[in-house]
Amino acid sequence: MKAIILAAGLGTRLRPITDEVPKCMVPVNGVCIIDKQISNLHKHGITDIVVVGGYKADMLKKHLSVFPDITFIDNIRYAETNNMYSLYLVFQAMEQTECLLMNADVYYDDNIIAGLLSPVNKGISMIACDDGGYIEESMKITLDGKGSINHINKKITEEEYDAVSIDVYKLNEHAVKTLAEEVKNVIEIQGNTNSWTEVALDAIFDVADFKPYVIEGRWFEIDNHEDLHTAEKLFEGDEI
Fold it and tell me: What angle do CA 145, 149, 153 make, to 5 degrees?
């Protein structure tokens, strides 16, 4: 199992911290967000990790050099593209096999990785999600009558949504190959390099089945200073 971490973004809402470090290196109680993610993956046997950097890429690459199994891809177009383009670069460079996919601004408990990888979920594509309340800024999902995900979008209303995505995904090989084709279509045919990965995901649900994995652990997406303050309270006393 491979893991892909998308970490190219500017993190402008976390300035002045991100004037000095990339967003994924912002510390939560002294622990960089990306270090927590890597620790979570390592705890559950995943060491084949691809990180796509962009903003302050040299700093991030140096920071990650202590992890021998990490492959680093530099999205030099980070300022004019979105995370789908970063994923496109991965698909162009790497074998398309089952993987975990995540954004680098989410701080979460390692038991979420354990749940996604549990034997009962083997071979199933899943979106880790929280059904505990509507979050305006997050991606939301809806389910069809059979319990499969049929939409993911930030604009899904509180009346329509079934759960909130935490931006951690597990894709089987079929889903990866299908997503890679859709990403290629959006980037190369449509010429759209500034879309979220979830735009491509939303387009493949009719041909690639995804189930919700409702989490039990803690998580928080860190986009601004208020988020960072909340995350530090939520994870106070946490050990990496």
Answer: 125
